[in-house]
Amino acid sequence: MAQEEIRRHNAGTLLRHVHLGGALSRTALAERMRLNRSTIMTLTTELATAGLVREELPADTGRAGRPSLVVRPDSGQVYVLAFDVAVDRLVAARVALGGTMLDRREAVRPRAGADLDRVVEVLARFGRQLHRTAPPSSVCVGVGASYCGMIRPGDGMVRFGPDMGWVDQAFGAELGRRLGLGLPVSVGNEAHLGALAEQLRGAGAGLQNLIYLHGDVGVGGGIIVGGKLLDGDGGYGCELGHMVVNPYNGRPCGCGSHGCLEAEAGERALLDAAGRPAEVWGRDAVRAVVDDADRGDPAAQEALRQVGDWLGIGVANLINLFNPGMVVFGGMLRDMYPGAAAQVRARITANVLPVARERVRLRTSALGDDATLVGAAELGFSDLLADPLGVLTRTRG
After folding, report:
1. Signal sequence: where (predicted)?
2. Residues 315-356: tens digit of each pLDDT
3. DSSP structural state of residue 63
4. Which of 46, 126, 224, 296 is deepest in the core (most CB within 10 A)?
């Protein structure tokens, strides 16, 4: 590796450590990166001069000897714009280095079919507002977006979004054009980004093997193996919601199949099982079933039990396949899981190999409904963290 590549790699690695971990001493950074302290000092000086980090004396200076300076991300100089397109809402945020959300906008998204123009119009307006209200001295270094569908890597094309009827919609390109910032929009699948967010900043922070299940109308998934997201040959991997769990007399799924996990454990499955009419839908309707079950309503309790059993079958299969250290339930499943946990655990006990189940933990998302937005922000920061000084030079130039 050439000297310049080594320097770029080390600068990015150091910035990633403080971006994700917060304030760290030079000594801690030297230990984590296995570099000598003089190299760390050179790197932190370069990054501080560029306005990416700050160095300061530690709060506790009672120890003998010269204290090691603390390095922390400078949250006032650079930011990314992050967007989240869910079935029922549109969210935009300005996110600082270090992951702090500085400002945000949110709007309801009607369930109106293929609505690319409206989605882009709303998000671009939000993005321009967030950009205008940023301090004049700060600079936008990236744009990341989460979408509830199958995304083609590279250009942000939504190849298939069954819940809203999107097929081959040029979401990334259109949003970038309407924003007018001269920056490309990096787009990822919402559950993939939720998995990364929970592994980097949430319930599974630091884990190398994790499965994230995201409920919206359907069920999406992201799988982290050895610290890396599984994306498949074309980038369309981990469509966990379309794993068939009920091949005989299964409910129809929006993908055209029957008995998929999202058909048996998604929003409509729960509401139908609880006897809710077809015109009742959405997150509030799901929460109402959960609340009714908590109050002892037999129909709501049976609905959660039934959906929980199908969810448990899916989770059991995933644990046998991937041996994760944790399964995280996000989105709508974060609301449903507590009332369905007994059935999920029963399926794990009955159907998972003993050595695979002995250490796995089941958790709800620590990032809540912002998991996918946090993942989009991390996508927006990815270029900066790969080449901090180069990206900053290009965006400021």
Report:
1. none
2. 999 999 999 999 999 999 999 999 999 999 999 999 999 999
3. S
4. 224
| Structural domain range at position 100 | 78-192+371-396
Instruction: Please report, for the domain that includes residue 217, its CATH number.
Output: 3.30.420.40
| Cα-based distances in Å from 224 to 77, 85, 228 | 31, 22, 5
Q: What H or E segment, with its residue span, contains residue 395?
A: helix 388-396
The tens digit of pLDDT for each residue in 119-155 reads 999 999 999 999 999 999 899 999 999 998 888 888 8
Domain containing 11 — which CATH number?
Answer: 1.10.10.10
Same domain for 261 and 291? Answer: yes
Query: CA-CA distance, 121 to 109, in Å (whole number)?
Result: 12
Q: Are residues 390 and 358 in the same domain?
A: no
CA geometry: angle 266, 271, 276, nearest 5 deg:
165
Residues 235 and 346 in one domain: yes
What 8-state DSSP symbol labels residue 354? H
362 part of a folded domain: yes
40 and 103 share a domain? no
**Pair 29, 88 in one domain:** no
pTM: 0.93
CA-to-CA distance for 122 and 113, rounded, in angstroms? 16
Residue 52 · residue 41 · CB < 8 Å: no
**Residue 350 is which amino acid?**
A
Rounded CA gap, 153 and 161, in Å?
Answer: 15
| Count of structural domains within the chain | 3
3-state secondary structure 205-233: CCCCCEEEEEECCCEEEEEEECCEECCCC
6 and 118, same domain (yes or no):
no
Residue 197 domain-assigned (yes or no): no
Which of 248, 257, 339 is CA-nearest to residue 291?
339
Distances (CA, A) of 357 to 17, 92, 215, 327, 330: 32, 38, 23, 11, 21
Helix (H) or strand (E) holding 139: strand 139-147
